[in-house]
Amino acid sequence: MTKMKKNFKLINNVLYPLIALGILFLAWVVAAKIVNTELIIPSVRSTFETLFALLGQKAFYTAVGGTLFRTIVSFLIAFAAALVLAVLSAFLPVLRKILSPAVTVARAIPTMSLILLTIIWLNPSTSPLLVGFFIVFPLLYDSFYTAIAGVDPDLVEMSKAYKVSKKDMVFSLYLPNIAPAFFDSIRSTLSFNVKIIISAEVLAQTRKSMGIMMQISKSRLETADLLAWTLAAIVLSYLLEIVIYAIKTAVVRWQK
Q1: Which of 116, 130, 162, 243 lies 20 to 30 Å (CA to CA) from residue 22?
Q2: Backbone phi and psi for residue 102, each to the nearest 5 degrees, phi listed first
Q3: For the segment 93-137, what is each residue's pLDDT rounded down to a tens digit?
Q4: If we measure between CA atoms, which residue out of 174, 60, 187, 85 comes closest to residue 137?
Q5: Closest CA to 207 of 33, 32, 66, 94
Q6: Helices marked H in the chain — which ranges?
Q7: Contact 136, 189 (CB under 8 A)
């Protein structure tokens, strides 16, 4: 039975993603053959040759490092604000009612409008940070609040009845119940934040960023170069997801 579960897990986590990736690359190859114009759809070979060429350049790591830094900083600020406010909202219903309209407004602001406004308000380096915060904060706040409010109220009441200390309630009741949802939300929003930050960098023309490198590739009509940077962004998002998943796995094992 255990062997069957391992095989099923291997199929879900490895085989299916590889099949999906293979289909995407096949579609890319077919489209490139049909169009037969490198300017419009570069071949897989030329794109990867360009990507490997970029890997040998210092500017590549400077750009990736700048984007990664802005992604993490904006995410951490949004994470801290969302966590604190979600905890307070879960135990103070009045605060939840006060914050609800503001969170709804933040969620409803068009991304492009927000980027353009922040370019007016801030300099090109800090503009993506504010954009990332405004986009990610509502997602994290709603997810964290739902996870905290979703803890079984009967268990909470039972803990209070048996006079369980607040410390034990936090570490033995709340954290084990909300940790999976927390990490799943963090993993999805962190990788999503990479896309938001890069989009803001493109319009703000942020120096030392993946966004500005994509903008330069587009202005020069270097489509293979643009696709290479796109692949780099996808890999960066995927690596961040792997890191969060590894942390989640370690925490779950520790709790057990």
Answers
A1: 243
A2: -65, -40
A3: 898 898 888 888 888 888 888 889 988 888 888 999 999 999 999
A4: 85
A5: 66
A6: 2-10, 16-35, 44-55, 58-91, 93-108, 111-121, 127-149, 153-161, 166-168, 175-204, 210-219, 223-255
A7: yes
The sign of the dihedral angle between the CA atoms of 54, 59, 65, 66 is: negative
**Nearest-CA neighbor of 227 among 70, 65, 62, 43?**
43
- Longest Cα–Cα distance in the chain: 73
What does the block give as tokens for 238?
């995927």
Whole-structure pTM value? 0.85
Among residues 147, 153, 141, the alpha carbon closest in space to that of 101 is found at 141
Structure tokens of 195?
Answer: 């896309």
**Comparing C-alpha atoms, which of 144, 159, 130 is closest to residue 96?**
144
Residue with tokens 């700048």: 66
Burial track 4-13 (b if 16+ CB lie within 10 A, e otherwise): eeeeeeeeee
